[in-house]
């Protein structure tokens, strides 16, 4: 994480060498991590379930972030019905491995955000 | 983190009850967490040092995020010279408590991002 010049990847786009920046390139926005939260802790699977989160994610952003997550192998989708086709989303092992990041946020919030709701104990296993 | 309606704060803006969303409201963008990284792990203090990060944070975003971090009591600033006045930035205890979040990202990156650089061992104390 020391100061170094970014390198160029094969596609010509610059990528930081920092492992934290690498994660943030993939999930470094609020909405993406809220989608991961819903898939990981709340068991949501369908597009409409994800769209119904209390934070009211805009549907165009939801669709975009799901595509990105799928492209980066953090989320997989599989059809649960045909005609019309509908997909169910789930975290891949790579996506599910973000759990400690989210749990660390839960801990921080419990300490520093007055009134933050404490999640059910089952979510906190493995902390 | 179950599905619940957001509540209204005194200012009329809606805030999620979810502890993860609470954190993301404060630091839920790539640039903010990179600033926290630089202050926490790399020991940067001055505006120009922060602006010189290898990820090339735009200076208008840097200035905006520092103001927000200060407003939320995650960062403190103190003058290190006068005429013209120049400020040094540092994490408050609340900001420094984000360390486990960033360390969890380092762990994830080490497992899932090919070529991610491993940080020096001193950064990994307390993991």
What would you say this structure looks like, in words?
Two copies of one chain form a homodimer. With 127 residues, chain A is α+β, with helices and mostly antiparallel strands. Chain A has a domain at 16-94: Winged helix-like DNA-binding domain superfamily/Winged helix DNA-binding domain (Arc Repressor Mutant, subunit A), CATH 1.10.10. Chain A has six helices and four strands, in the order ββααααββαα. Chain A has helices spanning 19-27, 30-42, 47-51, 59-71, 93-96, 99-112, and strands spanning 7-8, 14-15, 75-81, 86-91. In chain A, the strands form two sheets. A two-stranded antiparallel sheet of chain A has the order 1-2. In chain A, strands 3-4 form a two-stranded antiparallel ribbon. In chain A, strand 3 (75-81) and strand 4 form a beta hairpin. Chain A is globular and about 50 Å long. At the A-B interface, helix 1, helix 2 and helix 6 of A face helix 1, helix 2 and helix 6 of B.
* SSE topology string of chain A: EEHHHHEEHH
Helix content of chain A: 40-55%
How would you name the oligomeric state of the polypeptide chains in this document? homodimer
Structural class of chain A: alpha+beta
Summarize this structure briefly.
Two copies of one chain form a homodimer. With 127 residues, chain A is α+β, with helices and mostly antiparallel strands.
Main features:
homodimer, 127 residues, alpha+beta, Arc Repressor Mutant, subunit A, two-stranded antiparallel sheet, 46% helix, globular, disordered N terminus
């Amino acid at each position: 994480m020391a100061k170094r010049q970014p390198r160029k990847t094969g596609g010509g786009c610059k990528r930081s060498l920092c492992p934290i920046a690498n994660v943030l390139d993939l999930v470094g926005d609020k909405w993406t991590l809220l989608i991961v939260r819903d898939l990981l802790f709340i068991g949501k699977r369908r597009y409409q379930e994800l769209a119904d989160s209390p934070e009211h994610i805009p549907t165009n952003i939801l669709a975009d972030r799901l595509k990105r997550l799928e492209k980066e192998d953090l989320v997989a989708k599989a059809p649960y019905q045909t005609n019309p086709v509908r997909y169910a989303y789930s975290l891949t092992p790579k996506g599910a491995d973000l759990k400690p990041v989210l749990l660390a946020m839960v801990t921080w919030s419990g300490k520093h955000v007055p009134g933050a709701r404490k999640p059910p104990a089952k979510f906190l296993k493995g902390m």
